């Protein structure tokens, strides 16, 4: 079974839609998606994700199930330096690398920082959401793996956001979302694929096949957007 996560195209956050470039990205993405054999489509309720999905769904003649838990991860915490509310990621390396609890999937939500917000509750809600989809396809969560009650080769596509994708991957791969968020980047309209492996009968675990792939943009001659990436970008030479 394959889960394909698609981050929305370049966003216009003020209007919760897409920029002109974002619409071009979504069009290039649609040309890629239309060639897939997809069993189910799911989508965040936020405008930038729904607009991104709209072109692919139109090409495929399909509709998506809108899930509230696929919205961007919504659990602000209190910044330890400023005392102001902020998203629970993009933390200073000098801070998060020195808090061992943040680097474990079992303890990150219990750390002082994460307990200033509803991180634990929101994480549980997101995990329940993806586990509900998987159970419908025969994969039942069993500790830190899945029990394969019904083998399948279904493909499920989820249009959502960078933050919530990393929190879902954290659950599937048993890696702290703090490490994933700070160690990886998903460009707008990028494609991330994880597949279930049944190494032994009825025992399944998910493995990443690709993270943040933007080959559809290169094929269309559309530059990759780095919106959401705060470090200096090393430009490729022409």
From TrEMBL:
InterPro entries assigned: His_Pase_superF_clade-1 (IPR013078), His_PPase_superfam (IPR029033), PGM_Phosphatase (IPR050275)
Protein name, entry field: Histidine phosphatase family protein
Pfam families: His_Phos_1
CDD domains, sorted: HP_PGM_like
Signal peptide: none
GO molecular function, one term: phosphatase activity
PANTHER family hit by this protein: BROAD-SPECIFICITY PHOSPHATASE YOR283W-RELATED
Source species, domain of life: Bacteria
